[in-house]
Amino acid sequence: GAGVSQSPSNKVTEKGKDVELRCDPISGHTALYWYRQSLGQGLEFLIYFQGNSAPDKSGLPSDRFSAERTGGSVSTLTIQRTQQEDSAVYLCASSLDPLLAYSSYNEQFFGPGTRLTVL
Amino acid sequence: EDQVTQSPEALRLQEGESSSLNCSYTVSGLRGLFWYRQDPGKGPEFLFTLYSAGEEKEKERLKATLTKKESFLHITAPKPEDSATYLCAVQARNRDDKIIFGKGTRLHILP
After folding, report:
1. Which of A96, B30, B82, B104 shows the greatest Cβ crowding within 10 Å of its Cβ?
2. Which of B36, B17, B19, B28 is nearest to B101 (CA)?
3. Quick check: helix, strand or coil at residue A21?
4. Which of B92, B52, B54, B95 is nearest to A102 (CA)?
């Protein structure tokens, strides 16, 4: 596709409900990243996929957060039993192949984000 | 611990007033340093990747430089459309390719 797309663009939910956020990376990009950005804060790394596997899950804030990627393409980030502190913009990015050093393959292209508000 | 610190947090300049943004980093083996631009309500937009000390890259009014401890984003004769938040990020060689972002510098160019 032309770029990374994310859906929904906005999600308002009630505390305790589950939400699912979707990311469609650029076609052919092997790596996919999820970040969280709170107001006035930098990007907080959540999880990284190389293909369908996630070598680095260290950024997931709690066991309420999970993510999967199927077919080396679309990824979903699921937040169970949402809390008010989960409110943030969730950004997805993809890159060609981050394992190749000294190349342009690890440049990340970001989607527009999903703004999550937990009431 | 790998760390990225950007300064200043915010910067207001007059149109045409050149300046520099700083990104200081501590990482156990640098794989790459990235600069991004982020406009309000949008995802970050890639600007540059730097891989080794002494490297420089330019794009229009922006030039990024890299040393072993920091990177600078120089903005020459900025225009109001350069107003944005500029993010710096580093990728460490031995951290499973995790990329660590700084909190950014909010740049506002006054006409």
Report:
1. B104
2. B36
3. strand
4. B52
Q: What is the C-alpha to C-alpha distance for residues A16 and B97, in angstroms, rounded to an integer?
A: 33
DSSP annotation string for B25-85: EE-SSEEEEEEEEE-TTS--EEEEEE-STT-EEEETTEEEEE-SSEEEEEE-S--GGG-EE
- Alpha-carbon gap, residue B84 to B36, rounded angstroms: 10
Query: Phi and psi at residue A86, in whole multiples of 5°?
Result: -80, -10
Q: Judge: A35–B101 Cβ closer than 8 Å, yes or no.
A: yes
How confident is the model over A106-118, as pLDDT tens digits?
Answer: 788 999 999 999 9
- Identify any residues that bridge with A93 across adjacent strands, giving them in sequence order: A33, A110
Q: Using a CB-CB distance cutoff of 8 angstroms, which residues of chain A are in contact with residue B97?
A: 31, 48, 50, 55-56, 98-99, 106
Q: Give the whole-angstrom CA distance, residue B76 versus residue B82.
A: 10
DSSP-derived 3-state class of residue B10: strand
Which member of A48, A93, A101 has the closest CB to residue B31?
A101
CB atoms within 10 A of CB A117: 13
